[in-house]
Amino acid sequence: MLLWQLLRDIAQILMAIATFLTAYLMYRSIRLMEKDRKRPVIREIIQKVVTVLIDRLDQELRACKTGRYGWSHRRKRPDHVFELRECVPPHVTPLLNDFLREHPRIKKYFDEHDIIAQKLINGLRRLDEAIATPEFFAKCRELIKENRRLREEDIPYIINHVVDGVGPELPSYTTYEFWRKHGEELLKVRERNDIRVIIEEVEINRNKLIKLSGRLKKLLEKARERYRKRYNLLVEELREQRIPTVSVS
Fold first, then answer.
1. Looking at the domain assignment, is residue 5 inside a domain?
2. What domain range includes position 43?
3. Angle at the Cα of 77 from the Cα atoms of 71 and 62, rounded to 5 degrees
4. What is the pTM of this model?
């Protein structure tokens, strides 16, 4: 009698273990199926949102640390400082919003970044307006007469250098020789009192943006790595692959 009771108890324990294992395996199977289902979406978020933002922040950090903002007098904005929402095309915005909802800390830095970036851009715009006076254009025209490579139409490029506070890096630039000869003289306009006030404001926002961009870039890199491990993504899948075009002659 005791033996039958013992066997019955063992059978019940085994049945409970079997039930638990079955439930666990079903749960694990569902989770794996859910991962497989979400994997393409996660890959798209990484490629079109996270990696794009990391690349742009890297570009912006280099620009802010060197002062080479890539200012454009004609467009009244820099090439290398931007609001991050501008970096994502409209059809990708829903993915960006989904990502930010899932990462509130990243969203906080993201929003703060765009506020400071806009302040920096506005400061550079005011700096451009203060520098590009009729007197400055007249001075440039006089100096250009000595340089056969430049024309009056090139004065906006000179203004770009003065706003950035640095000249062209490579001899291939049209303004390279001109700047070597006259750059130091033209930069003296930045010593004007009204311009120095604007430059101080620009410097404050530049330093703020360097800190924000650095923190945000690290958070994005950590989020990307977590996604990569969780969804078993290859390193090659973190960046959108460009399909080379083949010309047909």
1. no
2. 38-237
3. 50
4. 0.81
